[in-house]
Design goal:
75 residues; alpha+beta; Metal Transport, Frataxin, Chain A; 37% helix; globular
């Protein structure tokens, strides 16, 4: 199993857009995204920092409910 890449927030939001998520609102440095089935996730938007692999793994498994391999197809 390959390591997850280090993604910036805007890159992750693009990938989530391909998965059917839209930005619902943004409060401060956190963007709230939702898809049509009602799944939600929160992405920290810090322009100079990448999202840690641990947080990315949590978003993929818990919030999206998909496998890492399936997520890698959308990169």
């Amino acid at each position: 199993m390959a390591k997850l890449p280090m993604l910036r927030a805007h890159e992750l939001i693009k990938v989530l857009g391909r998965l059917g998520f839209e930005i619902v609102r943004q409060k401060g440095s956190h963007a709230f995204l939702r898809n049509k089935e009602g799944k939600t996730t929160i992405i920290p938007v810090h322009p100079t920092e990448a999202i840690d692999r641990g947080l990315l793994n949590k978003i993929i498994k818990k919030d999206l409910g998909i496998s890492r391999e399936e997520f890698m197809k959308y990169l």
